[in-house]
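Margin note: ligand = flavin mononucleotide.
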Amino acid sequence: MKAEIYYFSSTGNTLLLARDGAERLKAQLIPLSSLQSLHFISSQADIIGFYFPVYHATFNEPGIPYFIRDIIKSFRGLRDKYVFAVCAHNGMPAFTLDNLDRLLKEKGAFLAGGMDVKMGIPYGTKEKTAHLLADQPLTFDREAEAVQRESLINQYRARAERSGFYERIHRRETCRLWKRTALSRLLLGGILKVQRKPALDRYRELAHFGGDDFRELTRFADRSFTLSGDCNGCGVCERICPVHNIEISRDVPHWQHRCENCFACFQWCPVEAIGGRVTEYEKRFHQPALTLKDILNDDSV
Ligand SMILES: Cc1cc2nc3c(=O)[nH]c(=O)nc-3n(C[C@H](O)[C@H](O)[C@H](O)COP(=O)(O)O)c2cc1C
Ligand code: SF4
Ligand code: SF4
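Resulting structure:
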């Protein structure tokens, strides 16, 4: 039984999950960003896994990063495969895996297996409220964060073990671990609608234009990145961007307005030269066990 895992990860959470899945299923690991220029993608594998971080599900968006949705749409022959997904999130995956299931159904396939995994720790509500109402700086404790992340990955491993997640996938049995009750779906739907409006307002400011198209606003939100004088033109940001949104010219990065807001450029710039309003709720922190070489999937770094 041949298995392939397609993944994207900005701060390393999903990469850890994808490596774990690949080990358990003896699957080949393939970065999703390497498939972008392809209009048709076909695979010889019997089992296909998609691993990705949840983006903007909180604001009533599909939750699947936009470029990954486009890539999945380009897959051919998925109806004959066992397809599963694992998404990393910060506490609110909302309907991400249902949305992926719907997308696959449009292609004649369906999401046979899936798990959402809490892997990052958001700023606490108290901290965010103090930031918004009293302009308090958002701070966090690196060591505590590293301990928390370790504990979250252990929780994921225990859950995968308990549910027999990978064994069931290996046997091609249905294993949908993300389902919700009708009541919780109803409540969640209401919360997401309320949260969407302030998010749209914020993104209109970041993108410097109006409109209701969240994808378009996030693309142009890169207008709110700033660059400090520490930039040395090393090109790491250009290489790490999954959607080739950064071009280095005259030794400085230029954002091309097709941003996914993954913040990999901000996270991995070796001299922390990237900042700006778009990054205000981000923490410069990645999985401690991983290096730039891991994220770039490049041994020559
Ligand atoms: C642009 C953006 C949007 C996000 N939206 C959500 C969200 O809607 N719900 C959620 O629970 N986490 C959200 N997150 C958090 C990520 O899903 C989470 O930190 C994930 O573990 C990151 O995975 P990675 O380390 O593989 O990049 C968002 C993160 C980013 C950068
Ligand atoms: S990674 Fe940082 S230092 Fe290197 S080119 Fe990009 S912004 Fe400049
Ligand atoms: S420009 Fe930065 S934030 Fe935008 S998609 Fe590329 S790496 Fe991600």
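Residues 211-296 form a domain with the Alpha-Beta Plaits fold (CATH 3.30.70.20).
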